[in-house]
């Protein structure tokens, strides 16, 4: 399983690297409600960025917790004097790594579950080859999809929510229910409340 996950992770990371470098910002909400406030807190308000009204203490509609969880590389880069564009790419790289990990874990888990029952019939070697092939195909198809290219490195909550949902499915299939429920809870409480609805099938199960 570790070897299988490593292979699919390399595939996913290689594809997501293109998104890190070439994905454009497709939504003004990503700019003004996430990148600008992140720039503001990473530079402590001294290097630019805006505190939009949703983050203002007068209204308090948004929390900075989400930005800190995924935007801490920008703070470190500003702390050691790296340029702004590199801080931007480092945050995207973190998001791309997280997305690649979730995709690789899900694809290898699905491949293992599919061929688990056929292990005795096909033989250990043939079963291993089939797992690798299916895991490769699943990972490749997920990564080259336009949706993954757009969401894997976006700082909008929908991007990390997709990765967390993939992790939830992986843990569910592995029968690690505590971790699966934890992914749903973290998504709903910290990242994007609307994505918590994806945990309903798990709750029913």
TrEMBL record:
<feature type="signal peptide">
    <location>
        <begin position="1"/>
        <end position="19"/>
    </location>
</feature>
<protein>
    <recommendedName>
        <fullName>Mannosyltransferase</fullName>
        <ecNumber>2.4.1.-</ecNumber>
    </recommendedName>
</protein>
<dbReference type="Pfam" id="PF03901">
    <property type="entry name" value="Glyco_transf_22"/>
</dbReference>
<keyword id="KW-1133">Transmembrane helix</keyword>
<dbReference type="GO" id="GO:0000026">
    <property type="term" value="F:alpha-1,2-mannosyltransferase activity"/>
</dbReference>
<keyword id="KW-0732">Signal</keyword>
<feature type="transmembrane region" description="Helical">
    <location>
        <begin position="177"/>
        <end position="204"/>
    </location>
</feature>
<keyword id="KW-0472">Membrane</keyword>
<keyword id="KW-0328">Glycosyltransferase</keyword>
<keyword id="KW-0256">Endoplasmic reticulum</keyword>
<feature type="transmembrane region" description="Helical">
    <location>
        <begin position="65"/>
        <end position="87"/>
    </location>
</feature>
<dbReference type="InterPro" id="IPR005599">
    <property type="entry name" value="GPI_mannosylTrfase"/>
</dbReference>
<keyword id="KW-0812">Transmembrane</keyword>
<dbReference type="GO" id="GO:0006487">
    <property type="term" value="P:protein N-linked glycosylation"/>
</dbReference>
<feature type="transmembrane region" description="Helical">
    <location>
        <begin position="136"/>
        <end position="157"/>
    </location>
</feature>
<feature type="transmembrane region" description="Helical">
    <location>
        <begin position="93"/>
        <end position="115"/>
    </location>
</feature>
<comment type="pathway">
    <text>Protein modification; protein glycosylation.</text>
</comment>
<dbReference type="GO" id="GO:0005789">
    <property type="term" value="C:endoplasmic reticulum membrane"/>
</dbReference>
<keyword id="KW-0808">Transferase</keyword>
<comment type="similarity">
    <text>Belongs to the glycosyltransferase 22 family.</text>
</comment>
